[in-house]
Design goal:
single chain; alpha+beta; 3 strands; about 25% strand; elongated
């Protein structure tokens, strides 16, 4: 496995949360989900489609104001 940020091959398992393994690159310190546990395109699209970015929503406006 390699780091998706710097492509180094020295990631170490950092922790497991809800059965998902997260890794840390020893070179650039990036943290990332185990590639084998990433959602497929269809699941990712379903999650994306759940988002309702309404400009009248104060929470959404606050997010955009960052």
């Amino acid at each position: 496995m390699h780091c998706p940020v710097c492509l180094d091959r020295s990631p170490v398992e950092l922790l497991t949360v809800d059965a998902l393994a997260y890794w840390r690159c020893e070179s650039c310190q990036a943290r990332f989900l185990d590639p084998g546990q990433l959602p497929d395109r269809a699941a990712e699209k379903r999650e994306y489609d759940r988002h309702e970015n309404d400009t009248d929503d104060p929470g959404y406006r606050q997010f955009l104001g960052q």
